[in-house]
Amino acid sequence: MLVLGSFTGIRIGISTVKAIAESLNIPVIDVSSLEALAYNIQDEKCSTICSLIDARNNQVYCGIFDKNYNLLENYLADDINIVIKTLQKYDNIIYTGDGAIIHKELLKIKDFLHNNDIHAKNIAKCAYNKYKRNYSTTADLLAPLYLRKSQAERMKQKNG
User: N or C: fewer beta carbons within 10 Å in the chain?
Assistant: First the structure.
């Protein structure tokens, strides 16, 4: 499960899901924040969806999906300029997310017609689509996917 936000909040949420799934003996379906954000785009004309979440200091979290919401690249947590280089191989990109709004000049986005927030309905749509494809996992395998270390961990590593 990929969720962006408080490291403690993520751990609490994952623990809650695991406890419920274990107690009811039911499978779970993980949905990333970037996947859910991509579900804001319902445009048959686009060939690529790029979900961008601002991570401050010119950094973004990025998910690149086809129009059927299949992930095309590994998730990125990088400088916006490096993400732009990665995106150069894709055509007809529609962007969503606060990272796209903040970096719209660099991305050469003229206007936004789509909502740029993560909605519970999109998390549900994504999970349902995965369910229809028989995708699920067990509670014991569910774990958060952190794209980068916390600021405290980065500072500790920097200071050695």
Answer: C
SS (H, E, C) 70-97: CECCCCEEEEHHHHHHHHCCCCCEEEEC
- For residue range 67-98, list pLDDT tens digits in order: 999 999 999 999 999 999 999 999 889 999 99
Contact 82, 130 (CB under 8 A): no
Q: Is residue 2 part of a domain?
A: no
60's enclosing H/E stretch is strand 59-66
pTM, two decimals, is 0.85
- 130 token code pair: 């995965």
Output helix, strand, coil percentages for the chain, rounded to the nearest 5: 40, 15, 40
Which CATH number fits the domain that encloses residue 52?
3.30.420.200
